[in-house]
Write a structure and sequence with these properties.
single chain; alpha/beta; 8-stranded parallel barrel; 8-stranded parallel beta barrel; 24% helix; 22% strand
């Protein structure tokens, strides 16, 4: 029978999930998981949870689904060793480096590929299966037939999200939050740029505002029987940031349908829907199951938050009383900060608010969410008290308690009513003192990347590479004499290269074909034919951005470079890709200089291409934007400008100001880097622009109106630098060395590039 998998972001949610019949739960600990803002579990709580859940014959999975920087690998090794001792049923992972480390040291740990790994085709699933990954959590941008076709073509277990919040960007490919300040979605720090309120400039100069990229919430309860018949092994409920009440009610609904659909499919589904009626979240969508019409799951007029609208705060007043605690969803701007000393005065004052514009009056015990009117944050709160006051006209008014941060004009939404609250039997024992395991002070053996042999990078000459999206853009860049062109394979170039057989402005040996990072079953079928056609025409050099590409490109003549979407933030990830016969790499747009220098040392730096200029795709969306989105530019509340691009291959959001470090090329050369990329993809190239970029690079001059992205400051981290260092042992004290694949049968025979 298919598994029902529920979130456990805290102890109460664990109780609710198990109490309502979940077969398994997934949870994170205090680090290395993609929901760092949830409460998560302490060491002793987690150890006790594993024992208690197993005692009930249920399973527990641990999310280790973030990318890991080289400086964190020591701490990661100790964390994995700890998990290996505690014994959860599986780890949900994103980083190839974790896969490589588990293969090497902890082969008994079962691995599941996170949806953040961006797996949407049988080719990708089967490659991971060969690498020992037992289950894949498929990307959410798939329909029933696509899921069915993947299942028919693989023996791997498949897990599918069926309920909860959606990301507008293709799974694992969102860079927006990271671009805004290093808070990467791939690091569990997403600030939900898709939920923000934007101002768009319309044709003619008019302006309007809206939540343009905030999708509805997924609800597939009526598609559950069809997914069961398709062979899906596990149904996943999203919500590690959600309350126990939410987890309990949603789990109960899906449990009912799973248990009763065979006896009465229509009746079971209708009952399940009624049970979900108290899910006061965003509007619901079946997402890709209803096709690619974005107007069905994007509504700019719907607030980016969740809940039933209760009105706006019309007035506030204070009364002396203890301030109740907010729920586990603080204002993003104040995460990790201690209360200021001046905040102490609020401890004996309770703020009350009068709401206007809604149709429901909340009661004590109801959970609400307050949106700051300037869109600066959201506060979840449980109403502690309701009071009735008379106004100046001797009319009774109902006022509700609110947190100190609430102010006039803030919209308020209902999350759950008090009647939804339910007490569950505790899963964890009352006494946690017997559970004392913690990560130990263990040394991570040093990993050496494969030594470079003479002429091993002959396919990867030193110099400047230029990436473009059309053949006409290649012509525009020809005067700058790049050592190689990188040409995107898209609808336009497919027509030029395969259908029309247009001539290139240079030799085919000077061209790498870059493959799109999102690969569905339909894409895989088309791409397999395209690759065969391009090979027949003499193209054998590829930029691969998805595990599916690696599985499809197995010809002895194929030369592969790991693209920016095969994330390599540590040398263990590089080593895993080495074992897939990838010898050269393009840096991720999120990378920092310090991270790259720590991974690639000495001669190894000749294997890496540094991106000097790009308009990075912050959102990559598998649909055309609605026709009503007839704008090219839009701004956020901070005044930052972005542009939207809708194409037959999907939609993209890019910053108006590009990323640029062209002025640093001379410093990079002195550091040993010698391959550089000017990425002009997703933009129409003008000769004057590319000439100005190249001229600034040669002169070491900075370009105006550009961004450094994470190049200088790296990822945002709430962990102080000194705390990080305390986890890392000096390499001088570590005498254990090995190269890639020399243990546990992971050594591959190197192919010779022709």
């Amino acid at each position: 029978m298919a598994e029902l998998l529920a979130p456990a972001g805290n102890i109460e949610a664990l109780d609710a999930a198990i109490g309502e019949g979940a077969d398994a739960v997934y949870m994170g600990l205090k680090s290395f998981n993609a929901r760092l803002r949830s409460s998560n579990f302490a060491w002793n709580q987690f150890e006790a949870a594993v024992e208690a859940v197993h005692r009930q014959k249920k399973k527990i999975y641990v999310t280790v689904n973030t990318v890991i920087e080289e400086s964190e690998t020591e701490r990661l090794y100790r964390f994995l060793s700890y998990l290996n001792k505690v014994g959860p049923d599986a780890l949900i992972v994103q980083d190839f480096g974790i896969v490589r480390m588990v293969q090497e040291f902890f082969p008994k740990l079962e691995l599941h590929a996170s949806t953040q790994m961006n797996i949407a085709s049988a080719a990708a699933v089967n490659l991971l299966s060969k690498e020992g990954i037992k289950r894949v959590v498929l990307a959410r941008e798939l329909n029933l037939e696509e899921i069915s076709s993947i299942k028919r073509s693989t023996s791997s277990e498949l897990e599918v999200f069926v309920h909860g919040a959606l990301c507008v960007s293709e799974s694992g490919l969102c860079l927006f939050s990271s671009f805004l300040g290093g808070k990467s979605a791939n690091r569990g720090m997403c600030t939900q740029a898709c939920r923000r309120y934007y101002e768009a400039e319309l044709p003619g100069g008019a302006k309007e505002k809206g939540y343009y990229f905030s999708p509805h919430d997924l609800q597939l309860i009526d598609r559950l029987p069809a997914l069961i018949k398709a062979g899906v092994d596990s149904f996943k409920i999203e919500g590690r940031m959600k309350s126990a009440e939410y987890v309990g009610s949603v789990t109960a609904a899906y449990r009912y349908v799973l248990d009763n659909w065979e006896k009465d499919e229509k009746g079971a589904v209708e009952t399940g829907k009624r049970m979900l009626a108290t899910d006061f979240a965003r509007a619901k969508t079946r997402y890709w199951f209803d096709g690619s019409d974005a107007s069905k799951f994007l509504n700019p007029n719907q607030a980016g938050g969740t809940g039933i609208y209760l009105g706006v705060i019309d007035s506030v007043r204070s009364e002396k009383a203890p301030t109740p605690k907010a729920l586990d969803e603080p204002d993003k701007k104040n995460v990790g900060k201690r209360p200021a000393a001046s905040d102490k005065k609020t401890e004996d004052v309770q703020k009350f608010a009068l709401l206007k514009g809604g149709s429901y009056e909340p009661e004590a015990g109801d959970s609400i969410r307050i949106h700051k009117k300037d869109d600066s944050g959201r506060i979840s709160y449980k109403v502690q008290e309701v009071k009735v006051f008379e106004n100046t006209r001797a009319q009774a008014e109902t006022w509700i308690s609110v947190p100190p941060e609430a102010g006039r004009g803030d919209p308020v939404y209902l999350l759950q009513t008090k009647s939804m609250s339910k007490r569950y039997k505790r899963v964890l024992p009352a006494d946690l003192s017997p559970y004392r395991l913690q990560p130990a002070d263990e040394r991570l053996p040093i990993l050496d990347l494969t030594p470079l042999k003479k002429d091993s990078l002959s396919f990867f000459p030193e110099g400047v590479y230029i990436q473009v999206s059309t053949l006409s853009d290649m012509h525009a860049c020809l005067a700058e004499h790049p050592v190689r062109f990188i040409l995107e394979l898209n609808s336009d170039t497919r027509r030029s290269l395969i259908e029309k057989k247009e001539a290139l402005p240079c030799s085919k040996k000077q061209v790498f074909i870059s493959l799109d990072p999102f690969c569905t079953p339909e894409t895989q079928a088309v791409l397999e034919k395209d690759i065969a056609s391009l090979r027949a025409d003499g193209f054998y050099q590829w930029i691969v951005n998805n595990p599916a590409h690696i599985n499809m490109l197995k010809s002895e003549k194929d030369i592969l470079i790991g693209g920016p979407y095969l994330y390599t933030f540590n040398r263990w990830a590089v080593s895993w890709l080495e074992n897939q016969n990838i010898d050269a790499f393009i840096m991720s747009h999120e990378s920092s200089r310090s991270t790259l220098e720590s991974i690639f040392e000495g001669p190894q730096r000749s294997r890496l291409m540094i991106c000097l200029f790009a308009y990075p795709a912050l959102f990559r969306m598998r649909f055309k934007l609605p026709e009503s989105y007839d704008f090219a530019a839009f701004n956020d509340k901070e005044g930052m400008s972005f542009r939207a691009l809708s194409t037959p291959d999907g939609s993209f959001v890019m910053p108006a100001d590009p990323f640029s470090i062209v002025d640093r090329v001379h410093v990079l050369k002195k550091s040993g880097f010698s391959r550089f990329l000017i990425d002009m993809s997703k933009t129409s190239v003008r000769r004057a622009d590319i000439k100005a970029i190249v001229r600034a690079m040669h002169r070491g001059e900075s370009l105006p109106d550009t961004s450094r992205f994470n190049w200088k400051d790296g990822f945002y981290s709430a962990v102080p630098a000194q705390s990080k260092k305390s986890f890392i042992l000096s390499e001088k004290d570590n005498k254990t060395f090995f190269s890639r694949g020399e243990k546990n049968g992971h050594k591959n025979t190197k192919k010779k590039h022709k």
